[in-house]
Amino acid sequence: MQKIALIFGHNEYTFEIEKNIKSHYKKIYIFKLDAESVSKESNGYEIQTFDLSEDWDELRDSVNIEECEAFCILEDMSKNIFLTLSLRDTFENLKIIALSQDKESADKLMLAGASKILPTTQTTANIIVEMLEKPMITEVLHNILYEKSNLKIAQVMVKNAQYFNGLYASDINWSKEYNVTVLSVIDKEGATEFIYSAKAKHQQIKNGDQFVVVGFDIDIIKFEKLIGDAHE
Q: What's the predicted TM-score (pTM) here?
């Protein structure tokens, strides 16, 4: 039976997430903090407001919480943690999927009661937003949320570029050869390119590059041993 999605947060992630989860839910409600400005189209959804002092009685009266799953995607991590804590304190059995920016916020969100973490970092945040509509990224997001919950997003620095023998990143079948998905390349200057962009296709892999990858812990560890170092 399909459930109801409650998305808390109105920002660059909101409708990208909505587009990629809507087939999994019979209905989606979007809530914004009073302080958040509505700068994007509603995509046909009514945007409801809430504040962090809510006792959630109004929410409980409007939906059957037993049928709901919540997405906490506030960009301010302290508010996102408080929101997660408040929802967990009120709804003991509610499934809560929370957005984290780094390992520290992920740990705090889990302690606050998140059921699953949707990980990102400051360097990967915009990448994910820009690419969510691409089929490969849609599959990755669905796997993280619904199927393979121990998938991780990590940055792996290249310190052994000679291993690739002059290949371009787009020349390699990453999933087949290394069991990871490479989303993008960040060069020494901090410029980020989607793995199959025109620019990335014409740049050889070099020491100091960082790959933003998705995979299981064991595969990421093996991958970093081959080419360098990783940090979640």
A: 0.55
